[in-house]
Design brief:
Blueprint (H helix, E strand, L loop, with lengths): L1 E4 L5 E4 L4 H44 L1 H10 L3 H9 L32
Length: about 120
């Protein structure tokens, strides 16, 4: 190791080049790091693939009844979802007894509490 004095009092040290053995060790280390990186990448992609397949299967399984109902009725998805929720079809007049509704004829649902005064 060679020490080179500097005008500010700092001493820098230099080393000789790695040599053939150091170069071989560096190349082997890089190859090992690349292999571990590739294995980690493939494992991560495999995990993401499995999670994606599970989510896709779950969505497919939970919507199967809705899809069958749509095929039978020929309705659109919006109409089928409204029907399942018990809401009147879009644009139809509500059949409420009070006669109050908004201008589009849709019923607005909500919760209320009676307050004693």
């Amino acid at each position: 190791m060679k020490q080179i004095p500097h005008s500010h009092g700092t001493v820098y040290t230099t080393t000789r080049p790695l040599g053939i053995l150091g170069t071989v060790a560096a190349v082997i280390g890089l190859i090992i790091a690349a292999v571990f990186g590739a294995v980690f990448f493939v494992a991560l992609m495999g995990l993401l693939l499995v999670v994606g397949l599970i989510v896709a299967a779950r969505v497919w399984w939970t919507t199967r009844e809705l899809r069958a109902e749509l095929r039978r009725s020929g309705a659109t998805i919006d109409e089928a979802l409204r029907q399942r929720a018990g809401a009147p079809p879009f644009g139809s007049q509500s059949q409420g007894t009070s006669g109050t509704g908004n201008q589009s004829g849709q019923t607005i649902e909500g919760e209320y509490r009676e307050v004693d005064r």
